[in-house]
């Protein structure tokens, strides 16, 4: 139990630090800094290279979708492992449950295929 | 003990239909989707209402090795959830006609998943079940907010709500973990046995669980997300959030706190009272200057939440009764109010701002009168439904001797009268053109039905109070 | 169910029929909407007389329409409790309402909201009857709010006019203040007595301490002061004259504003037990005298009548305050007739002058509209208290009772008020109906007597204005079965002397008015321009600056101050603390403010603060 409490107190301290540090920094900054702002200062790269295009464009996110789908199905097959180990004890009910589980997974899989989530364009 | 699966039949029915919905969605052409899925969802929800009515036991029963416990409190709140969802579907049908999306099927079956989560949440009798069902509901709602084309506000809301929701979930799970550490079990009865005094670990877990719930309900220190999310989400989704999520969270709170933390009722009751009064005031004050009705209703939701939370400080049985009654009224009022807003919004028409409602009376006297009923009910003007809800809570508080809390709530309601009157004043008094989008008959019907109920239950509140008393007695039977 | 139910529900039927016509835009209903009102309210009037005859035989009718079971031993039923007090009120309400319905056919003839008007009239009549019939505080409160609502709707009937809309809101807010106290009073009654039923509450009133009763009656009095527009909540009534004139006659003269008097009379056991009665009397006397002085200076025909209503309601409150409940009710009874008569008469005048309400632009109307003028003069004589008109009997009883019970200060100001009443009513009559014609010649063309549908109600109201006074003795005996009347006996000669004083002062008032405004021996400018009297004149002309004071203290002071605070809140707190610490941070560095994630971060930070708050709360309690 004590571990939990210590952890929790740590959480509180971290919270306080997280709240204090940026704000204190910014406030002190505000008063200490020398204000010589010009347009270049607000560029993303202050070193002088002009930007090519605005930053608001889209970027290719498809890779992440594939990765996510892989992760999902991969993880969920892990759930089959404990079932296989305890197969005899669980009996018929266990088989039914696994079929339900795989069935639901299958629906998700069908959905992913039909929506073209696995089609690399 | 035992599985007792038939008790969970309504939940499974909704879940299975949602999964079937996924498959059907893949094979339907887009133009029939809206009509088909609306009919499908209405049918499923309607059947579920009857399933819930016939399967809810008066003597509490458990299933899944006590992971789930059903009584009439559960049954009643499930009926209320299903009713609100039905109205949400009707409103969505019109809304989807007006606003374009590629995800029509997704919208409806995600809604069904959310309904499933809410239904499971009010029957949970175990911490993990509660948490999982809470997440099923919440994640579905995050998805629902982001489904419309070109609706960047909605997408922003989904992300914001998701981030905030995960923080809330983390906190609540921390609390659950502490409770498990204390008692060695996650079933309510077992956990309750391990808790008798307010030792430091108990205090911590209690505080975390309370915080998690207060976040989900949007009470004051945790309310930051409420206005943004209510404002930004598509109106039918806001309707769903406002009604269903609130009901589920409140009933889950009742079902968790009274059996588990009963010995500490005086402590957490006080906490809820303080937070409640603060929320009631803060919500009312912040709503005063809102020009956007959805945002205003979000603050009003904070205020209403505060009122209900404050009721928890009264004597347990009376508190449960008055909260249940209030939830009934609140669900009907929220559904009606957001349905009304959705009715007035359309492509090219923004019906969300108070100024858009100028002189509504001359365009449609009937809608203007519905507006009066809805907002006066929210304000708690007799003889409408909202009045009785507030009345019972005040009676409960006065009976428990908490006159100060009662007076504070009265004052907060008096303040809130101002901003509830503003739309009415605009609709009747101001010069201007109220432009109405073409009225969708189903949306219109949904609003008319709820407004009708607001009046009928206002005139005959004993209909609801008797039902609530019945549910209360069933719930109390499970606690002894 | 029973006859009481029928009386109350019939006007509701009229409201619903006409209301549906409005909602669905049924053309065929629009021109016929007055039939619903005439038939239903006429039937109610007939039934009210029937009930009155039944009650005179000494029966008290009770009915239970339906019962509300509310938790915790609070079961409130809707029903009727008809004793002599209620029976009298029923007759007054349905009688005046019926003739106002009839009159409105003519007066509202060309208004586009014809059907809406009759719908509201039905709603008002229903609400007022429910109020009057109530056997418990809950129904009383229901009726109380419902008449307030219909009054609000009718004052703002021409809501396109800004003044009307403003007046409606003003009335609403003023009544809110009173109603807030009233509902606290009802809650207090339930708290103390454990019931809301009149019968149970009043029978236990003797067993409760006087201090508690004082508190309850003070709260209830708050409601009465708001509804009956007594000092200091009186300012809404003159503004309410923005509504259509028949409404002023029905709601703001005869019935609704008298609801406060009725309620205090009904709750006499509670008021008798407390120490609050002198305050009631003082409020009444202040209003009676103060409103009369203001009435002297106004130029709007309806406003003069409105201040006279305030003043007469003040007399009723004064009567309540000295314990003469029956006399208060008697004055209410007679006042309803002659004040409704005066308002409807003024409606005819305004109608003939095509909407002109300024009496400086009238004059010499007698020869154009003889019936209206005659009826108006009858009403005036009744109001001024010239025997044998109705007002003489009722007002004189109040003044004598004030003397008999030893309230000499009250008596002095009430007599003074009687003089002022004669003065301003004389001024009104002479300026409107006699003297030279000051209106444009353009208006001469359509200057005519109103159609019969607008003069017949006047004649019917004139009859009780003349003769109702003779019912005094019977009335007193009849009402004593339901409410007390604490008046000490005084010798016959003393009474005669008092009557002589009052009547001669009234005649003197009329005489002065005639000298100034008819024979024009003295110019009114003598008073308004003289350096001594001018400040007083301005004070009165501006109604003691009540509107300005309230505006300054409440609207500007409180609302404006609050607005400032909200603006401050908006700028620094809502953008800042409430939306997270975003503003604080952004105040330090503008860049962070522009990023949305900053806000969510701050929500999360707020969440953390919330958790700590909950822990602290748990530790503290």
Tag the structure with descriptive keywords:
heterotrimer, A: 121 residues, mainly alpha, Methane Monooxygenase Hydroxylase, Chain G, domain 1, 2 domains, 4 helices, flat, B: 480 residues, two-stranded antiparallel sheet
Fold and architecture overview:
The complex is a heterotrimer of chains A (121), B (480) and C (621). Chain A has four helices and no strands. Chain A is mainly alpha-helical and 121 residues long. Chain A folds into two domains: 2-42; 64-114, Methane Monooxygenase Hydroxylase, Chain G, domain 1, CATH 1.20.58. The longest helix of chain A has 31 residues, at 2-32. Chain A starts with a helix and ends in a 7-residue tail after the last helix. The model of chain A has no long low-confidence stretch (mean pLDDT 79). By secondary structure, chain B is an all-alpha fold. Chain B has one domain. Helices cover 77% and strands 1% of the residues of chain B. Chain B has 19 helices and two strands. In chain B, strands 1-2 form a two-stranded antiparallel sheet. In chain B, a hairpin with a 4-residue loop joins strand 1 (61-63) and strand 2. In chain B, helix 11 packs parallel to helix 17 (403-429). The two termini of chain B are 18 Å apart. Classes of the chains: A mainly alpha (121), B mainly alpha (480), C mainly alpha (621). Chains B and C meet through helix 6, helix 8, helix 11, helix 15 and helix 16 of B and helix 1, strand 1, helix 6, helix 7 and helix 26 of C.
